[in-house]
Sequence to fold (385 residues):
Amino acid sequence: MKLSKTNKIIKNENRVTDLNELVVCKQTTTINHSEIGNKERSFPFQYIVHQWKTNIRVLQTVGVLLISMFIPMLSFSQSIDLGKAENFVLFTSNGAIDNTGSSFVDGSMGTDVGAVTGFETSTVTGSTEIANAATEEAIDDVQSAYDQGAAMTATLSPDHAPTFGSDETLLAGVYNVDAAGSLEGTLYLDAEGNPSSVFVLRFGGAFSTGASSKVILINGAKAVNVFWLAAGAVSLAANTDMKGIILSLTGAVSMGANVQLVGRMLTTNGAISLNKGSVSSPKAAPAANRPLPINMLSFTGFRDNQNIILEWSTASETNNDYFTVEQSFDGKIWSPIGNVDGAGNSTSQIDHSITDRNHSEEITYYRLKQTDFNGNYTYEVCNQY
Fold:
C-alpha cells in the first residue's frame, strides 16, 4: 500500500492595487461636448474651479489610500538604534554583573557602577569594561534605545494579552502590554521572507519567562531585529531559549540555569546575573572567521515496517540550537518532517534520531539542516531511501 500525504502551503501576498481600483465609486459617464461648451461659456470660472476641486478630491483619495497601505510596512522595518550599547552583550548603567558556574559569553560585558564577578571558569570572548569611557558612552544610548522603543506606536489594537507563547506565531510589528507580562511555551516570530522585519514586544512592568520557554525565528527573522522592552525587572527561567535584545528600565536582569540567549541584556539600573548560561551576540562573525557549528560523524537511516528511522551523530557542537530533517521525492523540492533539539555546546559524541512515520513507497531523499542560536544554518549530507 502506498502512503501519501498532502502538504498545504498558505502564501500571503502584498498586492499593490491598480489606481483605478482605489477609487471606490468610479463611474463611467457619457460626456455631451456641446453641453460642456455651454457651461464653459455661461460659467467659465465656476466650471474650471468645480473641475479642479473634483480632480483634487480624487487625487487626495488615492494618496490617502496609498499612504495607509504603506505605513504599516514602514513601521515594521523601523529598528531601534542601540548606539554604543551595541558594543556589549551584557551591560548595566548601575549594578553588578555576576555569574554562577561555567557560562559562555560571546561578546563584551560592561558596568559603569559595580563589580564583575564569578567568570573565572567561564568563556568570555570579548572584553570586560568597568567605569571607563566605553561604559560612560553606553549609559545614554541604553536609555535612548529604551525611550525610542517606548515611543513606537503599537500595531495591534487592543493590546496583546499579558502572556505570549503557547505555539503562538507573530508577524513583524510592535506589541504592547500595559502591565507586567510573560513568555510561556514556544513563540514563533515570522518575518515572512523579509530579513529586515522588526519585532518589538513591550511591557509596562516586569517581564519573565517560564521554564523551557522558547523563541523560534522563522522565514528570515533575525535576533538582531527582535526587542523586548520591560519597565521593570526581567527574569528568564531555567532552560529558556531566548532570542533578541532585552532592554530593562531600572530593573535587574537575571538568567536561570542553562538559559540560552542570542541577543543582549541591557538595563539602565540593576544587576545582571547568569547561571551556567550562554549569551551570544546576535550579529554573527564573518563566515571566514566563524567555526563550523558541528563536527558530523554520521547520518544514516533504516526502514522499520512503514517507518524510516534516521540517525546521526556529532563529535562536537558549537552554538547549536536545533536540527531539521527535510524530505524530498525529487531532490529539488524539500519539506521538513520535524525538528530535534541540538546540544548547544558540546565536545563529546552525541547521538540524535527522528522517525518519518509518513514515509512514501516512492524513492525518498533526506537531508539534515542545522540551525545555530543566532539563526545561521548549514546543510549536511543527503541520504536516499
Observations:
- The chain has two domains: 83-280, 294-384.
- The longest helix spans residues 44-76.
